[in-house]
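Final report, closing paragraph on structural work. Over the funding period we assembled a curated collection of sequence-structure pairs, and we close with a single example.
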Amino acid sequence: MDHREEFGRLVRSPVVPLGEACLVVAAQLGHPEPIARGLSALEALTDDTAAAVGPDRADLDGIVHHLFTTVGFRGDADVYYDARNSMLPDVLRRRIGIPITLGIVLIEVAQRLDVVATGVGMPGHFLVGDGAAPTRWVDAFDRGRWLDARGAEQRFRAVHGEGATFDPAFLVPTPRPQVLARVLANLAGIYRGLGDPTRLLRSLELRSDIPGIGGAPRARVELAEAYASVGRIDAAIEVLDELSDRVDPRRREVVAARIAMLRAGLN
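Its predicted structure, as stored:
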């Protein structure tokens, strides 16, 4: 089974293993560290946390304190869009990342200690909730700072501006497949900016395998254009052909025109 097939299997699991899936993402994007080594690093971090907080007395407060105060995980405010900040093997090794990857580390360690922690995809700044219906949220980027609802709203406005509309639904837990889609969107943006069409395509291929997300019209168009950018015109046409059967008739002409342009390039 190749890495893409493995990712597809994991993302369809009843409970998606975020850590393992992120390690597979890194491998598919060319990271040299074996997936097994990354899983061992998560287990070692969990063992270290259990020893510090007591496996029978573990709670989220203790886990957060250990990871972000004792161990020293923190956000990279200097080079936020460094690809290493979105690669879980590098985050585990460097103890530096962005909100979502640091949050995934917290969620994975907590889960291994039978403590509930949920990913919360607040627009612009990923948080970790203290349960299935959170009443407090961890800002993993800010060295594990705890936020109440008001504090989370203030963090939202710090990102989007004081005039931005805040919806309390932003603080509801995000399904795990959507968390992975956000990781991949970050990576796709990085590789688009770096002018790396191969890794951009691989990121978008993985996103296309996420149920309920990869089939969205915009995602399919981005995938088709990524195929075209590396000369895989037949694959681009195949994606757009499938999409043309599903889109609104007003958009169908635009898709058909793009298909015709790609086919003309084959002649």
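The chain has a mean pLDDT of 96. Residues 119 and 175 are 8 Å apart (CA to CA). We thank the funder for supporting this effort.
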